[in-house]
Amino acid sequence: VTERALFCLLCHSLKTTLKKKVSGDVVNLSGIPLSGRDVHRVAFYLQSGSDAVTAVDLSFTELQDESLRLLLPHLGGLPKLTILAVNGNRLTVAILKELTDTVKDPKKFPCLAWIDLGNNVDIFTVPQPLLVALRRRFGLRSSLPTIYEYNEAQPFGRYNPNMETSVEEPSLCE
């Protein structure tokens, strides 16, 4: 199979998936490269009749920060979404603050329990504030493990007093 034939097959797969009305509880686009136009199609698809969706798999779709930024309002509006997989893409730490802020918004992602961010450009851990926000959504009452983040600008072992604490709030999904 040539590279062009494989690309045409993947494009056909995306078009076929997006032509179907959202049915079932999983939207799986894993492995299908998404162009800018495709991301707009996915956004439209997600906002049209997706009340039952519990998982969205956008892993290995070549998503970049701007693409995820465009999808966040649509993903955040899925009332039953519990799992979001965006691993294996071209996301950078630059998107993490916006992602964290979106997850913290009580009107967005009411049931989100996990985001897979692995195997992206320079995201090595899930930031503590994002873990705390997810934990609040998930509604568990136990305390979070302390996960300190390190980068080149922060010396190893240095405590960051600005880290968010894990004060739990009731989950909207309960």
What do you see in this structure?
Strand 3 (83-85), helix 4 (96-104) and strand 4 form a beta-alpha-beta unit. Helix content is 35%, strand content 7%. Mean pLDDT is 76; it is low at 1-12, 141-150 and 152-172. It has five helices and four strands; from the N terminus they run αβαβαβαβα. The protein is α/β, with parallel strands linked by helices. Helix 2 (36-47) packs parallel to helix 3 and helix 3 packs parallel to helix 4. The chain is globular and about 35 Å long. It has a four-stranded parallel sheet with strand order 1-2-3-4, with no helix packed on it.
**Globular, elongated, flat, extended or rod-shaped: what is the shape?**
globular
Q: Helix content range of the residues, please? A: 25-40%
**First and last CA, distance:** 49 Å
Task: Pick out the low-confidence regions.
Answer: 1-12, 141-150, 152-172
Major β-sheet annotation: 4 strands, parallel
Q: Briefly, what is this?
A:
The chain is an alpha/beta fold and 174 residues long. Helix content is 35%, strand content 7%.
Features of the shown structure:
174 residues, alpha/beta, four-stranded parallel sheet, 5 helices, 7% strand, disordered N terminus, disordered C terminus
